[in-house]
Request: fold
Amino acid sequence: MTVTKVKSGIEVIGVRPLGAVRRLAILPFFILLSLLTHCSDEDPISTDIGLNFFPLHKGNNWVYEVKETTIVQSVTEVYNYQLRVTVIDSVKNVNDGYTYTLQREKRTLETEAWESFETWTAEVTGNKLIQNESNVLFVKLAFPIYKGGKWNGNEFNNLPNTGNLFNGSNSDVYNIFEFDQSVSLSTGLDFSETATVHQNSFTDAIVGKDERKEIYARDVGLVYKEITQLEYCSTPNCLGQQKVDKGVILIQTLKSYASQ
Reply:
């Protein structure tokens, strides 16, 4: 938008008539009004705070490929399955917003019927997206979303060690590690605008590892989730060898989705 100041080049000698003075006085007002109107057309004020990174609408559903590995006393078991999450209901809550019910179903093979095993809820309260996962509240996102944004993801729960396997420096802080980056998934889906949330990034060669992250895509929601929580053997004969005493590794990747 370019504004050019124009001089009339007309020299007036003597006293201007009163009507001319009034016309000259109100002329800048109309010029300013015209400029403001033009600016609002070309440069609208953005009100996007990132709510569409976690779209909540009745009927929305997401299907994920999940690989879950558990380790107990060096014995490893791998479980592959599909997870379907569907927004099945919404009710008005005491915060004058809506609480959405998320039905969670799983199956081992695509030829099998879906089996419901639990329900979660999600809602936006103030500037926080709060998800109730089996009666434990997590602040999944804080708005507005931007690279470097930080918040306490365990603000509303009383989990031991504030939800962390180990209490490292800033291990209770969630942060937006990447924003508006493109992501390609192993399932063949590509997304051009994503936000990567690091929920924890603790690693120690002696005691273990607690690394968790989630990736959200604009107008889609959660597209990728990774959890690595490992406790290393601490007895004298294996200390420092990073031998896993117990732990879990979960990788959840979006396969398909449908939005209403």
Remarks:
- The radius of gyration is 28 Å.
